Amino acid sequence: MIEQFIGYVAAILTTASFVPQAIKTIRTRNTQGISLVMYLMFSTGVLLWFIYGIVTDDIPILVANAVTLCFAVIIMGYKIIYK
To answer: Distance between CA 31 and CA 80 in Å, rounded?
Structure first.
């Protein structure tokens, strides 16, 4: 029970910390300070965490990384489109 609670709190905090940057990037379309290589690596890592969540049936990891992956892919798309 406590493990699930800790997992959900960690998932909420890490995902929520990423949201302001994603919103700012989406609003301004300014990706000048963002490294494409870093976002490729980050997105790959998040995708692997998402897959891990599926394989292990770990809902906090699955949900947090699904949401984070969506934002990361959007930002990466903006980086590629708005060079």
So the answer is: 9
CA distance 54 to 45: 14
Contact 72, 40 (CB under 8 A): no
Distance CA 59, CA 78 (A): 29
Token pair belonging to 8: 């959900």
Short-list 78, 75, 80, 79, CA closest to 19: 75
Per-residue pLDDT tens digits for 18-48: 889 889 988 998 988 889 999 899 999 999 9
Q: Can you give the pTM of this predicted structure?
A: 0.82
Sign of the torsion formed by the C-alpha atoms of 7, 9, 12 and 18: negative
Q: What domains are defined for the chain? A: 2-81 (1.20.1280.290)
